[in-house]
Design a protein that fits this description.
Layout lengths: L1 E10 L2 E11 L4 E5 L6 H8 L7 E6 L2 E2 L5 H11 E5 L10 H11 L4 H14 L15 H12 L6 E5 L7 H18 L2 E5 L3 H5 L3 E6 L2 E6 L5
Parallel strand pairs: 3-8, 3-9, 6-7, 7-8
Antiparallel strand pairs: 1-2, 1-4, 4-5, 9-10
Helix pairs in contact: 3-4, 3-5, 4-5, 5-6
InterPro entries: AAA+_ATPase, ABC_transporter-like_ATP-bd, ABC_transporter-like_CS, ABC_transpr_LolD-like, MacB-like_ATP-bd, P-loop_NTPase
Protein name: ABC transporter ATP-binding protein
Family: Belongs to the ABC transporter superfamily.
């Protein structure tokens, strides 16, 4: 599903991502950990075409992401990739269902198609009764669930999450951990998660550790 070859990202003389190559299979849940400054978020942003590399390639579902024009790359991101960040980035003036429907509308689908898809996803993440609430009326954990539903809106090839539980208390963090695993099992969804949370990393199919811009270890033992 994801093929990374010899990826490099430099900021001045510093190589933040240093010749990284990896493969991620369809339906796999991969966690990437490492100390602050290890390069894990930069690697995720490169894989998601939120940043451009100084060298190397990223292929997702067979598509050379950086071989696309800027316009096609933006379309690819909206339709093939879903993003979840530490802060939910919901649009405050819109309801939960409208926030989730937004990527569907951007993709050119009808208003009703977007709302139907959003309703389905909000029910899937346990918020079927909160669809008309604006973000300010939702708890932090609920807001992040809306963000996860939004990331799934266009049935993307890959969901990429950067510290998705970093802004949540332990109870909500655990609930989000379990939700990722449940969604992976139910949908066969591919997830790449950058996290400091060892509990979340332990629930992944594969755990990659980064240091100084490189992947330095890999484990495949999934815990629960």
């Amino acid at each position: 599903m994801v093929t990374v070859r010899n990826l490099v990202r430099r900021f001045g003389a510093l190589s933040v991502v240093n010749d990284v190559s990896l493969d991620i299979a369809k339906g796999e849940l991969v966690a990437i950990t490492g100390a602050s400054g290890a390069g894990k978020s930069t690697l995720l942003h490169l894989m998601g075409a939120l940043d451009s590399p100084d060298g190397g390639t990223v292929r997702i579902n067979g598509v050379d992401v950086f071989g696309l024009s800027a316009k096609k790359q933006a379309k690819f991101r909206n339709e093939q990739l879903g993003f979840v960040f530490q802060f939910h980035h919901l649009l405050p003036e819109f309801t939960a269902i409208e926030n989730v429907a937004m990527p569907v509308w951007i993709a050119g689908k009808s208003r009703q198609e977007g709302l139907d898809r959003a309703q389905e996803l909000l029910e899937l993440v346990g918020l079927g009764a909160r669809t008309k609430h604006k973000p300010s009326a939702l708890s932090g954990g609920e807001q992040q669930r809306v963000a996860i539903a939004r990331a799934l809106a266009n049935k993307p090839a890959v969901i990429m999450a950067d510290e998705p539980t970093g802004n949540l208390d332990s109870a909500n963090a655990e609930a989000v951990h379990n939700l990722f695993v449940d969604l992976q099992r139910q949908l066969g969804q591919t997830f790449i998660l950058v996290t400091h949370n060892t509990g979340l990393a332990a629930m992944a199919d594969r755990h990659l550790e980064m240091r100084d811009g490189r992947i330095v270890s890999e484990s495949r033992d999934r815990g629960a």
